[in-house]
Amino acid sequence: MREQVLLDVGSIQPDRVLLLDSYFYVVVFHGTTIAAWRKAEYHLLPEQVALKQLLEARGGPARLAGGGHERSRPKPPRVPALSCC
């Protein structure tokens, strides 16, 4: 289930996957429980289809959470290099 959380250390929980979209970068954080599941390769078990889809989807959780909107974004503006003197 998706829900918005505050950008705060209190939002970090062992059983959460946090996604930060800063426009230029998408950062995905796996809580300790999720990371342990990935390390133990639970996503390879036949009954863990949902976990496998989350971890192995092209683009990972960022693509699933974004609903494919990442391709419809305009390119960020180019900022000219400024020099002094």
Could you characterize what this model shows?
- The chain has helices spanning 32-39, 49-56, 60-66, and strands at residues 17-21, 26-30.
- It is of the alpha+beta class.
- The chain has a domain at 33-66.
- A two-stranded antiparallel ribbon has the order 1-2.
- The radius of gyration is 17 Å and the shape is globular.
- The termini are far apart.
- The mean pLDDT is 76.
Shape: globular
SSE order in H/E notation? EEHHH
Level of helix content?
Answer: 25-40%
User: What's the Cα radius of gyration?
Assistant: 17 Å
Instruction: Classify the secondary structure makeup into a structural class.
Output: alpha+beta
List low-confidence stretches: none
Number of strands: 2
Strand order of the largest sheet: 1-2
Task: Report how far apart the termini are.
Answer: 54 Å
Could you give a short account of the major beta sheet? 2 strands, antiparallel
Continuous helix count:
3
Q: How much β-strand is present in the residues?
A: 5-15%
Mean pLDDT: 76
| Oligomeric state as shown | single chain
